[in-house]
């Protein structure tokens, strides 16, 4: 796959992740916590798959833990730092932070 095609595909996955995140925020405002959690997981999975594709790797499966574990170490570290920032923001929105 060419670099250009790979980056377009990664962008497509990232756009889907962003859509899931926005939908999750809308549901959170309505107190729909289970649905919000599901969409947060979906957004995380799609964002990680976008990263894999952008790196020229083939993402496999739907396990967030596996997608993180199997990333190159530097990319995994950055992804975990970003996830921690997002989780802190969610805790603040839920009044737990």
Automatic annotation (TrEMBL):
What InterPro entries does the record point to? Answer: HEPN_dom
Its source organism is Thermus thermophilus
Where does the chain cross the membrane? none
Report domain HEPN positions.
14-97
Protein name (record): HEPN domain-containing protein
Q: Which UniProt keywords are present, listed alphabetically?
A: Plasmid
